[in-house]
Design brief:
The complex is a heterodimer of chains A (66) and B (296).
Chain A (H helix, E strand, L loop, with lengths): L1 H7 L5 H17 L3 H6 L1 H9 L6 H5 L6
Helix pairs in contact in A: 1-2, 2-4
Chain B lengths: L2 E6 L2 E6 L4 H7 L23 E4 L6 E2 L10 E3 L3 H17 L6 H9 L24 E3 L9 H6 L10 E3 L6 E3 L16 H5 L5 E3 H8 L9 E6 L8 E7 L2 E6 L13 H5 L17 E4 L2 E4 L2
Parallel strand pairs in B: 1-5
Antiparallel strand pairs in B: 1-2, 3-4, 3-5, 6-9, 7-8, 10-11, 11-12, 13-14
Classes of the chains: A mainly alpha (66), B alpha+beta (296).
Chain lengths: 66, 296
């Protein structure tokens, strides 16, 4: 959530995005219940379908592409 | 017992029905990290570091509780497994005080976990709970593995003094309305201390020595003996540093205790060093026919 706040505020670094992906992957693989396994999908698919350079929020705020 | 065949890391192997994947991995000496697992406690699947890849499964499976099935194909060191374990370890490193969590730090080194990856966020930092004479609770070190709750409850002690309260990041071990231990049903058996994997629960002697920087595990010797109190005859393991008992546990392999003790066995050792004893430990004396003489 803290990383997402940085993304929205346009202060996210490419390392932050890598962290988000890794965390989402880890949650999907290792969570105990379906809720945890699916909870990161929205973030992961947003990153997949709106990669950083094309993401208006991030681009507007000048984040670095990963 | 019925034998079944399965594959672990592409090697054919056999197991007994009813065994867990972890049972087989341990027998084959495939090192698998665990934090919330203990051979005498029911698996709770809380820590997520023993995860392995199972062919055909959508997600990784916890080896500590998943029972073996015929034809399983299990992989224990794939990139997916290592990455999942590393993420869990990094999240723990970023939120708790790991200073007494030797196992966790060992796993962190093995999976090259970077403590800074998730650093900078909220942590479990909180005041130490020091409200009784026998042990100290430092929940800034707690990873919520549930072992203390299980040892206090139906897996060993049946005292039910503690439970997990709260949800999400506010989840914590609670005595019930957060009353001090003395007002809780706690019987001070210390079985929660024995199972704690991160040093959040420690005996007072160890706590004081750690605070004073005089706790040196490498210098400690272990002596197995029998508890001198009641007739059950529990097996004790005394940890001795500079000729003083600094901690007492019971071997996990002991058929009598299965590693669990009562308050007397675990904490009732101070008398050994009492200056009011007739026979001092430092100068052991043995009775002879001619009276008592100093041992040489």
């Amino acid at each position: 959530v803290e990383i997402l706040h940085r993304v929205v505020a346009g202060r996210a670094s490419s390392a932050d995005i890598e962290r988000l992906k890794m965390l989402g992957q880890g949650m999907g693989d290792a969570s105990i219940c379906g809720l945890g396994q699916a909870a990161a999908w929205q973030v992961l698919s947003a990153l997949e379908h709106f990669p950083l350079p094309a993401n208006p929020q991030l681009a507007r705020n000048g984040a670095q592409p990963s | 017992m019925t034998s079944i065949s399965l594959k672990i890391n592409d090697q054919d192997t056999t197991a007994q029905i009813g065994e867990t994947i972890l049972d087989v991995l341990r027998r084959q000496q495939i090192e698998t990290p665990t934090l919330c697992w203990n051979e005498h406690l029911t698996p709770v699947n809380a820590c997520r570091v023993c995860m392995v890849e199972l062919k055909g499964s959508r997600v990784l499976v916890p080896s500590c509780s998943r029972r073996v099935e015929a034809g399983m194909e299990i992989y224990t060191e794939t990139a997916r497994v290592r990455e999942a374990r590393r993420t869990v370890i990094e999240l723990l490193l970023s939120t708790i005080d790991t200073s007494a969590a030797a196992d966790l730090l060992r796993f962190a080194a093995r999976y090259q976990a970077d403590p800074d990856r998730f650093a900078g966020g909220a942590t479990m930092a909180q005041p130490v709970r020091d409200d009784n004479l026998l042990y100290v609770r430092d929940y800034a070190k707690c990873i919520l593995c549930y072992k203390c709750v299980e040892a206090c409850g139906t897996d060993a002690q049946f005292t039910f003094a503690i439970a997990v309260a709260g949800r999400g990041f506010k989840a914590h071990i609670d005595t019930g309305f957060d009353v001090p231990l003395a007002e809780s049903p706690c019987v001070y058996c210390g079985n929660c201390i024995a199972v704690c994997p991160t040093g959040a629960l420690v005996g007072r002697t160890e706590w004081q020595m750690r605070q004073a920087n005089t706790w040196h595990e490498a210098e400690q010797t272990q002596t197995d003996t029998t508890c001198p109190y009641c007739g059950v005859g529990c097996e004790l393991r005394l940890y001795v540093q500079e000729n003083r008992i600094v901690k007492v546990s019971s071997p996990s392999s002991s058929p009598v205790t299965r590693s669990f003790l009562c308050v007397k066995g675990r904490f009732g050792y101070e008398y050994v060093h009492s200056k009011r004893r007739k026979y001092q430990v430092d100068t052991p004396a043995v009775p002879t026919t001619a009276g008592t003489s100093e041992a040489t």
